[in-house]
């Protein structure tokens, strides 16, 4: 650290939340940085998930960037097709007779992944316990789908359901009712009925299979035209579930706003509204300019 500071190198500390006992030492190192003795090119990069052990002083004095998972079925589908599908480019452009089946099951699987992620926003209505499903779960399922389609003559739905539902996604599930829920959802997306162009995944027919020989670029165009807001019906829930979700989101937003309110209003401020305005203006001034 000291050597990098003097020579103008960059230092990268990854996953700081995994070393809470070392955070006081990190806080000390950052606090003792002397700008007069520090090379102008020296930088310290830190990555961490939200953690109470992370030094507050570093958060206040440093530039912060957040990386959040996509929200909504549309965003999840788009992310999946842009990050997971390119590795199968050669297969998708081959003359293999299994290509079309792979395309349909791929879309169905990506839609299932998005539904599992988005059900968490409904709280206990979605799952009894919120689970952190990741891109890695989807990645291994796509790889297994590709492998099993090439290995078996017929589509091995039982194998696909078991590996995806009990191992890849089910391996994170600790509640028996949640596992039962996931397996029932998966049964709708790993099914012979989805192997056809025009198959609808919801009653309005917004989410549906595309025709035979549809290119990947057209899949992306279709996904980009999907609605931003998802209907609870797509998740197998009543419309009132959307109201409960909106209320919970509102309460969280209000709690964050209340946390910004000062506990004691200073003599220089005539009201809570003025203090809030001053804080908002201060936060706006701290926002960096967009990267060109």
From TrEMBL:
GO molecular function list: dynein intermediate chain binding; dynein light intermediate chain binding; minus-end-directed microtubule motor activity
Source organism, top-level taxon: Eukaryota
Any one GO BP annotation for this protein: microtubule-based movement
InterPro entries, A to Z: AAA_lid_11, AAA_lid_11_sf, DHC, Dynein_heavy_D6_P-loop, P-loop_NTPase
Domain Dynein heavy chain region D6 P-loop span(s) in chain numbering: 3-66
Pfam families with a match to the protein in the record: AAA_lid_11, Dynein_heavy
Domain Dynein heavy chain AAA lid as annotated: residue spans: 102-241
Sections of the chain in a coiled coil: none
GO cellular component, one term: dynein complex
Family matches, as PANTHER family: DYNEIN AXONEMAL HEAVY CHAIN 1, DYNEIN HEAVY CHAIN 6, AXONEMAL-LIKE-RELATED
Protein name in the entry: Dynein heavy chain AAA lid domain-containing protein
Biological source species: Graphocephala atropunctata
């Amino acid at each position: 650290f000291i050597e990098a500071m003097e020579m103008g190198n960059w230092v990268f500390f990854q996953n700081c939340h995994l070393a809470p006992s070392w955070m006081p030492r990190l806080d000390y190192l950052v606090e003792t940085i002397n700008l007069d003795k520090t090379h102008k090119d020296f930088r310290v990069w830190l990555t961490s998930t939200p953690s109470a052990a992370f030094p507050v002083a570093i958060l206040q004095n440093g530039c912060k960037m957040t990386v959040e998972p996509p929200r909504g079925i549309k965003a999840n589908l788009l992310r999946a097709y842009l990050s997971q599908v390119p590795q199968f480019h050669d297969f998708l452009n081959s003359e293999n007779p299994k290509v079309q089946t792979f395309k349909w099951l791929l879309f169905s699987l990506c839609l299932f992944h998005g539904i599992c992620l988005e059900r968490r926003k409904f709280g206990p209505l979605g799952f009894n316990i919120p689970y952190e499903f990741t891109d890695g779960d989807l990645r291994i399922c796509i790889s297994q789908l590709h492998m099993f389609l090439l290995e078996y003559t017929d589509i091995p739905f039982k194998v696909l359901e078991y590996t995806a539902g009990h191992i890849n996604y089910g391996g994170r599930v600790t509640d028996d009712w949640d596992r039962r829920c996931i397996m029932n959802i998966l049964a709708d997306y790993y099914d012979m009925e989805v192997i056809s162009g025009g198959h609808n995944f919801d009653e309005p027919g917004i989410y549906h299979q595309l025709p035979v020989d549809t290119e990947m670029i057209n899949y992306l165009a279709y996904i980009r035209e999907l609605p931003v807001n998802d209907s609870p019906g797509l998740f197998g829930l009543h419309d009132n579930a959307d109201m409960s979700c909106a209320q919970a989101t509102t309460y969280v937003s209000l709690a964050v706003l209340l946390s910004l309110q000062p506990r004691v209003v200073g003599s220089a401020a005539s009201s809570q509204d003025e203090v809030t305005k001053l804080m908002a203006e201060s936060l706006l001034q701290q926002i960096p300019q967009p990267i060109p």
